[in-house]
């Protein structure tokens, strides 16, 4: 399939006035159809360009409510069954932790209990439902970029060899939801149209898929928040449980009021009053705007990002030793350190004190140079190293030739040239393809489609 896509690249740079290569109509149609099919299911560099230009939207109250589906575990977690009978589990009828998490599609933070629920090598294959709008694609790209910039997690287009992957799809009335951790096979991240397509909400659901529960589910949460049971809707107390360390491992990190995974104060409220109140004065909870600093640290620790993204670098050190006599009347000792210098001094009478100073300079770890997208070679031949430099300089460093010891940024051409990049744009325009939803036409036939 990808060989057909590369045919598009082979005809770049040709003038429409040049002699048209004799390509059968059916073959030309196949090229366009194949490209459009690919672009429907995966983000393109143009989507990341739009994501960068689009202001990040903070969710409103209605959008936050979309994460409180009464039929899902904790409002937005798929894969954990709820009671089917008329009586809901309350805190006086504890949840059976072993039963809830004994199925292969469940996961949690504790990788000793659930070692197979993390994504291999921090690589998360994805696929999108057809028909996503430009704004929806841009919101997904913003969330992917958030993980790219703060962690080693890579959301990459699914390949045929990827059995496990997330499938991002839309719904019209069922809120936002995700499985927790790698579920196996096709696992859905479901986003309600008009409510869930913001960077922060998508980042929240993706963090579930990486293996994280809500922050208030931590074993130690009662030290940091108060649960106001009288304000919680009937039957919804099950969403405010806390779990043992067998289920949730806090990874040695402090409780995070600012986490994108924390419930907001009115979650599942029956009367408009707070259901969860921070014990720290002035603390705000429930933001759905970005990964917090601690969110990023937890992800990096869980997925061992330091081991995956850096290579060992040599260090250099210099040591200077001086001797001088002292007349200190009694033995003393002292130790102190700073970031670049460590010292140790001891004195006794009557002797000579040796003071040593060691300065260590550590080279900055080198970023691993590779293509993070299976289609980087195609993007390079289509000119994206120049036109989508931010995306390409991260996802396609190898294809863009940025693997030298001192990487240089891709050259950006001044001003966008509005041209046709396919010899058959005139034909496609005449038969009305400019009016279709074809991404091929929008990207490669701007001139013929009057987009200049």
From TrEMBL:
Disulfide bonds join 369-403, 418-452. Binds 1 zinc ion per subunit. Its cofactor is Zn(2+). Its EC number is 3.4.24.-. Residues 309-335, 347-360 have a biased composition (Low complexity). Residues 110-306 form the Peptidase M12A domain. Residues 307-364 are annotated as: Disordered. It comes from the Eukaryota. GO terms for molecular function: metalloendopeptidase activity; zinc ion binding. Zn(2+) binds at residues 204, 208, 214. It is an enzyme of class 3 (hydrolase). This is Metalloendopeptidase. It comes from Steinernema glaseri.
